[in-house]
Design goal:
The chain is of the alpha+beta class and 97 residues long. Helix content is 28%, strand content 28%.
Length: 97
Amino acid sequence: MQAMLPERMRDIIEEHRFAFELQALIPNAKRADEFIDGAKWVLSRNPLKGRRIGRSDVWFLPMEEVPGILPVVLYYTFDADYVNFLSIQETIYPPKD
């Protein structure tokens, strides 16, 4: 059986706030890139994998814990062409699926 691929992938745009927050959470650039690669892969193919915040255009994706920091949540928006990574935050109460 052949895997279903999306019709097209969206480009990922990392907003300045997101980049700043990621660097503060994970100062090692290589480790930070490795950490968000999974989110990029998933959301570029299907941004509906996250959860929408109310009726807003902002969505969130709970991410795996990074040793030494609290659980992390990625906030983003998207349209037909792009997924914009807005913010990445530690959270004491990670959202549950």
